[in-house]
Amino acid sequence: MARTVLVTGGNRGIGLAIAQAFAKQGDRVAVTHRGSGAPEGLFGVQCDITDSAQVDAAFTEIEKELGPVEVLVANAGITDDTLLLRMSDEQFERVVDTNLKGSFRVAKRASSKMLRAKWGRMIFISSVVGLYGGPGQVNYAASKAGLVGMARSITRELGSRNITANVVAPGFIDTEMTSVLSDDRRAEIIKAVPAGRLAGADEVAAAVTFLASDAAAYINGAVIPVDGGLGMGH
Ligand code: NDP
Questions:
Q1: C-alpha 95 – ligand 1 centre gap (Å)
Q2: Domains plus CATH for the chain?
């Protein structure tokens, strides 16, 4: 059955791969962008997830064009790395406001319609770094770990209404976000990953579309790693 899907930050990177995977299986897919427009075949809504009014307007537009959001993928995220000693309050707050509070904003807005439909899927894109930690990533890791507590609380609140809230924790994926890594850091990462390579964004998308499917109805509050074995046991 075709669903209405919203992928935040679905205009590029991992989000785009996720959006395209849903579109390929016949779903109606909306993506947010902050001015770049949407790639072909996807319904674009301009939305900065740090602004609740913009989030509300984006959902209203999607509801009008495609129907209520049944599958929410909270993917939009940023990094702003620096060591703890040098990290400003602003750097910490901006990353948490985007990655964690931005996910809260879209989850909250999606939840009322999911409750009415007595069906919904929320998938939060975290990171291996959320539970593994990363030097220079106090802000980013805190925001990504926070998504786990958030998803599990949503599971406890809404789990009896056929609504699932799961977390996908990618390892290192070849996108613009990782293109800024130095060659030395990239080599170090590849050495640490049992799979011995970075992943393609489509490998994250495969986990996300599965969690959104009817087959995954009994998977709730889970953290699914897609990290080539990097975070094992965390
Ligand atoms: P990119 O930097 O390639 O893309 C980030 C996306 O987030 C863009 O679509 C961007 O929109 C959007 N975005 C950022 N801030 C906002 C905002 N305030 N409002 C709306 N949209 C926003 O990142 P990736 O594709 O690599 O990452 C996607 C997700 O996966 C992130 O949450 C990231 O933390 C996570 N992740 C990535 C990993 C990797 O190795 N790449 C590993 C683990 C997790 P715009 O085009 O407008 O800037």
A1: 11
A2: 4-223 (3.40.50.720)
Q: Output the pLDDT for position 234.
A: 65
Contact criterion met (CB below 8 Å) for 21 and 205: yes
Dihedral Cα 7, 10, 15, 16, nearest 10 deg: 130
Find the residues whose C-beta lies inside 6 A of ligand 1: 8-9, 11-15, 32-34, 36, 47-50, 75-78, 98, 102, 125, 127, 170, 172-173, 175-178
ipTM of the complex: 0.99
Is pTM, for the whole model, over 0.90?
yes
Atom of ligand 1 nearest to the CA of 77: 32
pLDDT score for 19: 98
Name the closest-CA residue to atom 13, ligand 1. Answer: 76
